[in-house]
Write a structure and sequence with these properties.
There is one protein chain. By secondary structure, the chain is of the alpha/beta class. It has one domain: TIM Barrel (Alpha-Beta Barrel), CATH 3.20.20. It has 16 helices and 15 strands. The strands form 3 sheets. Strands 1, 2, 3, 4, 5 and 15 form a 6-stranded mixed sheet that branches. Helix 6 packs across helix 7, helix 7 crosses helix 10 and helix 10 runs parallel beside helix 11. The structure holds 2-acetamido-2-deoxy-beta-D-glucopyranose and zinc ion. The site of zinc ion (ZN) has 5 residues, from loops. It comes from Gossypium raimondii. Its cofactor is Zn(2+). Homotetramer.
Length: 467
């Protein structure tokens, strides 16, 4: 069970984050705007370590009317201001942007709802999340179903929320339907190259993806793809007992080999060439979600980048923290797809992240009800696949990254800057360049983002200290 402590590092810092979070909750009740740390319209957050594009500085972030208006260095401000909250040596950095979270309302709010999911995000330092179009019912694949999503979210959210729309066979060849969905404000589309496990979210193939990219090109938005292709030979293992003890993680691991990921990436690259400069889908972008295979699949992606395809790739903290060898028999909490692979693969993932071959991180937060995890049976083949993690991604990345010497600047790049660009948070990206701290009250890029806002202060104090 030691594994599941996630090395929550350090405990004090996590506590601080909770305190900070509940302070936001409380103070927002008393403040007039409902969106400020304090009942003041003008104040400073001071720290000896503020992460900026120009490096880490000692100083203060000035907030006025709910927006970040400046960052001042220590020598310029000390002693001058009254409304200062001093975080001392604690790190102040941009809020995390999680581009891959499954909040399952409407339809399966008991798996994860907007209030619980976004509170967990806030507690973990995430200030924006982009919700996946499936696991809710109905899936978010049309303007009508997007409307249901927005209605569910508007009830109660505690961080900024945006949405991906689904690219499915039903809408893939219908440009009118896809354009309507994009016009309604989804940040891009998501599709699966293998069965998603959700009946009303069927899988797509390269033809659907090619058609989707041609529409996305006009909007300069990305397509996110779950990149695994089921091979017929291996897939029967999942349904037959012949594959071994279903309580043993290695049995599950064999049912989804790296060759599935490789086959999917190989097929994707036949269409991503359209995204090259001068190509028929120039402007569109393809993003491989939750890469687990750090070998052939990653090599293919690197090659495509070199050729000029517009392609990026993410991985998730659970692939960086755990390895197959360590997963106890019957502990289906570790089941996800693609699966967590062996320790050697984990090392390769870290190296790829450090080298810049993996562009960014996301949670792939995907909870369900405990009964569907079959915790008593411990049957890896039958349990729901999905890991619940949104609250822990920052401490997990930081803690497990110590061994590789990760820096705060890298954290910001993997968790804020690049995800902001992927999700088309242009105002944030622009602001990132100016000051790195973000005020999302400037030109919300999608029509509904204005309504779905907890506070218009896009930053978080974090949450951890150096060891
Ligand atoms: C395409 O989508 C639109 C909007 O959802 C719908 O009205 C139309 O019937 C669809 N066309 C086809 C050929 O399915
Ligand atoms: Zn997912």
């Amino acid at each position: 069970m030691d594994l599941l402590h996630w090395k929550l590092f350090p405990l004090l810092a996590l506590l601080a984050s909770f305190l900070f979070f509940f302070y936001i909750q409380d103070s927002s009740k008393s403040s007039q705007s409902g969106c400020s740390l304090f009942p003041h319209s003008h104040y400073w957050i001071a720290s000896k370590r503020i992460v900026t594009p120009q490096g880490i500085i000692s100083g203060a972030v000035e907030i006025k009317g709910g927006s970040i208006v400046s960052i001042v260095k220590n020598k310029d401000w000390s002693g001058k201001f009254k409304q200062v909250v001093d975080y001392g040596n604690a790190v102040v950095m941009p809020g995390l942007i999680d581009v891959h979270a499954h909040l399952d309302d409407p339809g399966r709010a008991e798996w994860e709802g907007f209030p619980s999911g976004t509170k967990a995000a806030a507690a973990g330092g995430i200030t924006t999340l982009i919700d996946m179009p499936l696991n809710n019912f109905p899936s978010t694949v049309s303007t009508e179903t997007l409307k249901l999503k927005i209605e569910a979210a508007e009830k109660s959210i505690y961080v900024d929320v945006g949405f991906w729309g689904g690219l499915v066979p039903e809408n893939a060849f219908n440009a009118t339907a896809l354009e309507a969905l994009l016009d309604a404000g989804v940040h891009g589309l998501k599709s699966f190259m293998c069965p998603s496990g959700i009946n009303d979210f069927p899988m797509t193939d390269a033809r659907h993806i090619k058609a989707g990219l041609s529409v996305l090109a006009k909007y300069k938005r990305p397509l996110l793809v779950h990149s695994e292709i089921q091979s017929v030979v291996e897939s029967h293992l999942e349904t037959e007992d012949g594959g071994g003890d279903p309580r043993s993680y290695s049995t599950y691991l064999k049912t989804r080999p790296p060759s599935w990921e490789e086959a999917a990436v190989r097929e994707l690259l036949t269409v991503t060439k359209d995204t090259r400069s001068g190509g028929p889908a120039e402007g569109a972008h393809l993003h491989v979600v939750h890469l687990s295979d750090a070998s052939s699949s990653l090599d293919l992606i690197k090659e495509a980048k070199r050729r000029g395809d517009s392609i990026t790739v993410e991985t998730c903290p659970h692939y960086l923290a755990f390895s197959a060898e360590e997963i106890p028999d019957g502990d289906t909490r570790f089941k996800c797809a693609p699966p967590i692979r062996d320790a050697a693969n984990k090392e390769k993932l870290w190296n790829a992240l450090m080298e810049g071959d993996i562009d960014m991180l996301s949670s792939d937060h995907s909870p369900t009800v405990p009964e569907l995890k079959l915790l008593n049976d411990g049957n890896f083949l039958k349990a729901w696949g999905g890991i619940s993690s949104i609250q822990f991604v920052l401490p997990v990345t930081w803690s497990y990254g110590q061994k590789y010497g990760i820096t705060l600047e890298q954290l910001v790049s993997w968790w804020s800057e690049r995800p902001a660009k992927l999700a088309g948070q242009h105002s944030k990206v622009k602001f990132l360049k100016l000051s790195f701290y973000i005020c999302i009250s400037i030109n919300p890029p999608s029509p509904f983002s204005g309504a779905l806002r907890m506070n218009n202060l896009e930053m978080t104090t974090t949450l951890f200290r150096e060891p």
